[in-house]
Design a protein that fits this description.
224 residues, two-stranded antiparallel ribbon, 9 helices
Length: 224
């Protein structure tokens, strides 16, 4: 289990756990004896407890959907990370923060692509780990509720009278929103909407503009 350190007094510590603790489960794991626990403090250099928690939670969701066992899933995604990011074989017990972030990104990208469901509780806690909005843009998912076929909403105003099919979108800021959240965004205004949902739009690069076909849209409703 994971949690946050609240206070210390001599050799006594108080920890607020992220999830509720089942005493029956704890007693079973300790075989009826007084449980022994290990305290691991994040040092900023190696994989953090929070990253490790997210990785295993996502792999559990993957296994529940596909029937893979956890060790198979771990080996599979580790090999993907090593191949995609050209890194040496690593262990989730002591890899770097960067490689742990690669692992999270790789698992989520795969689950998005294969339409494998995962718990939104994990998704909601990920923005600081990787470009969440960028992944939603590429998979056309709403950055808030994850619904498919999201609109690519311009945070940078295109302007009236300009042809969205021919203007240069590079440098503009965008976010993917479903119709419901797109409507809410227009009703609330950009600033209030961003603050409420803690969104950070992404800047369109030439590569992203080409990938999303910005500037030659088949359907005018796709870009708003």
């Amino acid at each position: 289990m994971y949690g946050k350190l609240i206070s210390t007094s001599g050799n006594t510590v108080q920890i607020a756990l992220d999830d509720e603790l089942s005493i029956n489960r704890l007693t079973t794991l300790a075989n009826g004896k007084r449980p022994t626990v290990e305290l691991s403090v994040e040092d900023g250099r190696h994989i953090t407890p929070d990253q490790r928690k997210k990785i295993y939670a996502l792999m559990n969701d993957f296994c529940a959907y596909t029937g893979y066992v956890p060790e198979e899933a771990k080996a599979y995604f580790k090999s993907m990370v090593e191949g995609i990011f050209n890194v040496e074989p690593f262990s989730l017990s002591n890899c770097s923060v960067t490689i742990a972030s690669y692992m999270i990104t790789t698992i989520l990208d795969f689950m998005f692509h294969e339409d494998i469901p995962f718990r939104t509780k994990i998704w909601d806690s990920l923005p600081s780990d990787f470009p969440r909005v960028a992944m939603c843009v590429r998979h056309r998912r709403c950055a808030i509720c994850l619904k498919e076929h999201a609109d690519i909403d311009h945070v940078t105003t295109v302007g009236m009278g300009r042809n969205r099919n021919t203007i240069n979108h590079t440098g503009m800021y965008i976010e993917p929103l479903c119709r419901v959240h797109h409507t809410i965004r227009h009703a609330m205004g950009i600033k209030s909407f961003m603050q409420r949902y803690h969104l950070k739009p992404i800047k369109v690069t030439p590569e992203l503009a080409k990938e999303l076909h910005l500037g030659r849209i088949e359907n005018e409703q796709t870009i708003n």
